Amino acid sequence: MIESVNGKRTPLDRLAEIATDEPFRLLIESVRDYAIFILDPAGIVTTWNAGAARIKGYQASEIIGKHFSVFYPPEDIATGKTDRELEIATRNGRFEEEGWRVRKNGSRMWASVTITALRNSEGNLIGFAKITRDLTERRAAEEQMRRFSLLVESVKDYAIFILDRGGHVSTWNAGAEHIKGYKANEIIGKHFSIFYPPEDIAAGKCDLELEVAARDGRFEDEGWRIRKDGSRMWANVVITALYSPEGRPIGFAKVTRDLTARRQAEEDQRALAARTAALEEKARTQEFQERFLAILGHDLRNPLASIDMGASLLRRLSPDPAVHGVLDRMRASSQRMTRMIEQILDLTRSRLGGGLELHPQPMDLRETIARIVDELRTAHPSRSIVLDSPALPGTWDRDRLEQLFSNVVGNAIIHGDPAKPVTIQGRVEGGFVVVDVHNQGAPIPEQLQSTIFNPFRRGDRESRTSKTAGLGLGLYISNEVAVAHGGKIDLRSSLAEGTTLQIRLTR
Fold first, then answer.
1. Going by DSSP bridges, is the β-strand pair 432-439/422-429 parallel, antiparallel, or unpaired?
2. What is the rounded distance in angstroms from the CA atom of residue 365 to the CA atom of residue 346?
3. How many CB atoms lie within 10 A of CB 342?
4. How confident is the model at residue 417 (pLDDT cuts 50, 70, 90)?
5. CA distance 186 to 451
6. Bigger pLDDT: 59 vs 312
7. With CB atoms counted within 10 Å of each terminal CB, which end of the chain scores lower, N or C?
């Protein structure tokens, strides 16, 4: 009910008559989303509706007769804000603003306030109509949206942007720039198919994704995407349909996360798990340890020590510089093989104990491969070895990679066609260095290709008819070294193309 101050008849009596007019009263009292009440010219509350009681917390008997400054924070009262509002409403006929107000319980609310001057037929001011709406929730939502926008703009691990209904980019965040490489002015307005490989575009994948998102509200996928520089990344993509408040489709939100590193790690983990399972089957037996360590520690190391000592002695006895060069190369090869044996022993102990110890340092892998090629040319003067590679900078364990490429290139020489060259091609691919070692000749039998990197295949030599059967530990150890450097070795072998071992190493 609207109530008014009792007393002598004053200009406010007219306000009371207006406020108690039956249709008007019913209208005002039915409104609960707005506080609607009347102030006298001095700002004293003279009426109070149900909406005012709900929003501000005062019952009519508690507030009628009090100054409306009771609704304002202390700092606003101290600065004379309430007086200024009435002055403006008196002068201009109306005052409107949004600001903080105080409820009866002391809590604050964000309110939309309109104060309208009321005048009689002679134009004299008789009071003010005040309408207040609680916008606290709306402000909170707007603040949340503002913070969300700031969050989206600051996120760098996710590309978050909007597409129009046709699939054209209309917004762009820092994460999108970081992940995809485009600046906002380079990509806004372009179709999102620019992020997809040509084969996906040709297959209509982009249109299909938008169709599914529009139909089901959401589309999610993992697959290859293209960065600005042309490199590929493995991405998780979520496309969500966007609708207007009326339910009309207006576009799509697209969130992309770069999972390239995770995918590579998962592939490496699967490969490592497969090798570990094969190794554990034998590594847990005493026979494995005794056989492996005995071969390396005694049967190979002792003859190499004799070769090294013999070459050193012959060099002192011979005055011929040409002989010195040959003997020096013999000693260098012998010493490197001795180091390899020590490393293999260390590798075996490490695998049994759980991990390969590395000592990485910056280096140019091409220089290391070139030294190995020179030694192998000396050891195999009739064989052609072609090295085609730019500089291959990275951070690796030099000794381990010497061990790897000595095994792989030496294996290609031994098992390749003597009349055809062994080729070594290196290149940089993003965060990886890739080296292909290729030879021509009889391919590795298909039934052996799946086990080519297994340990202790040398022991099966007698049961094989192919000369490729006795590969022993070399390729197994080489692959372990590659895996320890965040990479792997892949095999391709056929009669038409020959045999290629592709070594991939993380830079």
1. antiparallel
2. 23
3. 14
4. very high
5. 50
6. 59
7. N
- The number of C-alpha atoms within 13 Å of 318 and in the hemisphere containing its C-beta is 15
Q: Specify the DSSP element, H or E, that contains 29.
A: helix 22-30
Strand partners, 387: 424
DSSP letter string over 278-307? HHHHHHTSHHHHHHHHHIIIIIIHHHHHHH
Residue at 460: amino acid letter: D
Strand partners, 423: 386, 438
Count of alpha carbons within 13 angstroms of residue 348, beta-carbon side: 22
| Mean pLDDT (the chain, rounded) | 84
User: What is the distance between the alpha carbons of residues 259 and 268, in angstroms, rounded to a whole number?
Assistant: 14
Q: What average pLDDT does this structure show over 233-247? A: 90
CA distance 298 to 398: 25
d(CA 337, CA 353) in angstroms, rounded, equals: 24
Please return the burial class of 353, using the count of CB atoms within 10 Å of its CB with bins 0-12, 13-18 and 19+: exposed
Q: How confident is the model at residue 2 (pLDDT cuts 50, 70, 90)?
A: very low
Residue pair 489/478 in contact by the 8 Å Cβ criterion: yes
Q: Which residue has the tokens 């260095």?
A: 433
Residue 498 region by backbone torsions, left for phi larger than 0, else alpha for psi between -120 and 50, else beta: left
Give me the amino acid identity at 277: A
- Taking residue 31's Cβ as centre, other Cβ atoms within 10 Å add up to 15
What Å distances lie between residue 176 and 120, 189, 236, 381, CA to CA? 63, 15, 13, 55
Of 503, 298, 295, 299, the C-alpha closest to 406 is 503
If you count them, how many residues does the chain have?
Answer: 507
Write the pLDDT tens digit of every residue in 342-372.
Answer: 666 655 655 565 556 788 999 999 999 999 9
Long-range contacts of 408-412 (CB under 8 A, 24+ apart): 408/437, 408/474, 408/475, 408/478, 408/489, 408/501, 408/503, 409/369, 409/372, 409/373, 409/376, 409/385, 409/437, 410/376, 410/474, 411/471, 411/474, 411/475, 411/501, 412/437, 412/438, 412/439, 412/499, 412/501
